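Chapter summary example.
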Amino acid sequence: MSRLKTVAAFLLLVGALGCKRESPALPESADHYYRALSFQNIPLVAGQRIAQFEVALVGARVRALNRIPDDWSMEVSGPRSGVSKISGIAGHGAGWLDSAEDIGQFATVLVVATNFGIRGTMTLAKGDDETNFVLTRMNFKLERVPSKAVDRE
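The structure predicted for these 153 residues follows.
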């Protein structure tokens, strides 16, 4: 009977150690760090405004949405296969943004991999005319966020 108890205890221990648990927010280190995410270098022509966007982050997790403009909806997903996404869309034309500064530091991300990458798309609109703009690394600004300023889980 004691052999059965030993085997059962061993199986419980192996099962408990093998369970994947979400770790709490990591302190900032060389390969894990927080950044406030903004847009920059968006080529708006006269009268053109920002109507929607989608951002894909490789090797990062979205920890917070800091700024959601009036009349906008935003959604976060992931990370799935190492890719997290943030999308935002204005409810209608009156909510379109005049500049990227109107949504500065809209998210806080935790970079968790050395192969960090970021890309996306943005819809620029003027009346009924819409232009899809491809966002590259140069269209994003990542600003340091002090570790103390980030809520710990």
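To summarize the output: The chain has a mean pLDDT of 83.
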